[in-house]
Amino acid sequence: MTEQISNQPEMLSGARSASIGGNAQYSPILTGDRNNYFGKVDNLQVNFFVMDQSSISNEDVGNILSMYFNKLTALTSMIDIAQFTHEIHGRHALVDVELAELYQPRDVQLSTPYTIQSLVRFLNDTQYALLIGEIGSGKTTCIANLILCLSGGWLNRIHANVKNLGSEWNVGALFPAYIELRRFVDFLSTLNDTDPIEGFWAYLTFRFGADLKKIEILLKKHLSQNGGIFIFDGLDEIAVNQSAMYHSVINSLDALRIEYPLVRIVITTRYGCEPFELHNELSRFDSATLVPFSPNQVGVFINIWCNHIQKLKKDTIDANQIIQFVDEHRYAFQSSASSPLLLTHLLAQITVKHFQLPLDRAFIYEKAVELLTETWEQYKIVGRKPEAMLQPICTKVWFGQPSHERQTFLAAIAFKMKCDQQTSPEATEHTINRADLLQLIHSSFSNPDLAQKRIVEYLELRAGIITQTADADVFYFANNPLVDYLASNHLRKEQFPKLFSDLVRAQYSLWQETAYLAAKQIIITNPLLLWDIVGWLCRIDLPEHDIENTGETDISGALMASIILIDVPRPDIEQLIPDDIRRLDRVKTWLEAIAASSSTHHKQFQNIAITLAPDITILSEYVKSEYEKRLKAAKKQSENSTISEQI
Known about the structure:
By secondary structure, this protein is an alpha/beta fold. It is built from 25 helices and 14 strands. The chain has a seven-stranded mixed β-sheet with strand order 6-5-11-7-10-9-8. Helix 5 (181-188) crosses helix 8 (243-259), helix 6 (196-208) crosses helix 8 and helix 13 packs across helix 14 (361-375). The termini are far apart.
């Protein structure tokens, strides 16, 4: 046991196993020849630690370590695409993607000092690190990449190696231990008053193989003398109502830190989810927050994904069609999917659902909201028994309400935020105060005894839909595209189309995306409503006087009507009536006048009109031509019928 364990697995050999009498962890140990010891000890209880002559072989040590690191790499090397498409028939059209293929280096924002640096440098320089991020920000993926590289370093792999971490990682191939906290505390709940350190080792043995027990003494000595890195992933996933579980984590962290002072410890959690009980313990940790994907990183990620599906060469996947769709909607991706989780989810959904293309950006937003508030939570529930699931009370309360009431509530929040911003045009973020939020909970859910606080907890701490500002009574929703989409769901059901048209005509810049999404979804469901919507938006004929003196309300309505006419599927000519033709002519006349306007007052609208005018002209010519053909065909059919009757 006197031989030091080096950084390479083969160097763990040569040490002997031992049998232990008494509590060898906390009792004094005397060493020496069992037949020739000398000296005198008074008032000391000695527990003997006797070396077993039948030592574990070099080959066995190497095999056990290889097994351990291979299990770590198997756990972290692939992105499970099935989890993003589990509800879709035919999900096997996709195969899992290698993490190394999709992973992009990430930056973090330090809390002290307030600067941006690479994640690798932060973890390299920090012994006790707290990695914070919003839902789907990539915390677990970043940790998985670190573990993959460290494990690959021990296994001497080429494509997954510590060298892949770059020059900012200079502490070598540390021995890694990966602890998924939701599984860890579930495992501890099955043990009876186990020592924190022994509980930690028991979990590793349970999770990664019983053979680890054979070299546990060697690993403990290596960690004591050479250090390593323990990663506790998902502090936020421990049930808030299970305080005993928090104390288990606290005890494990404290005991491991004292027992192995050279070991690094990394904890990941969502922002604001560090429980009160851990604040003192976490004061030893330096924290940093993951920086969201930049638009450029989103673009790179999309390109890598498209290359991946092209390589699949599956008959069920039309790679070119999917790539075309993604290219057409890159802005929607870049504006609503700055997190790797959302981006992977959306791309997987689109790839599997390619048979429904062409889709639109409303689909992207819908899937983003669905993932945040519904789907992803299902992967965070762990438990040996249904009644013992590690699930926060707020999650149970949220999913305990009818689905349609949850959707109505989310739509009402977003609509309220948009309306508040309309009265405060200088606001750059969508916000809502606590009183209004609680009022919306009361009006949206039918349960009179609903715990309103739990609903707020779920949206903030679990789903990440809203975030508390510096003012504890004000929440913000920084993802503007998702607010627009949710608010559009409200507009589709409330006083449509009057309220919808009034809002976009009154403040075009604020409501244009919300109005577009609402109209688009309604028209897809009922195409005949297209002309009613156009009529509500563009209500009057262009006045005879110069457009320079026309107010912005009618101009905004004409522009919105033009966008909707151009962007929805072409009208069903068989259902057209003369009033529809007149509405189309009215929109075309307005658009041409706006495009030709020389007034600086309407400059912001003029550029839009100039872009739309050619498409409206083409649409108008097509509709009128087809309509005339229909009238002629109907007239001819009528004449033939008359002749037949006469004969």
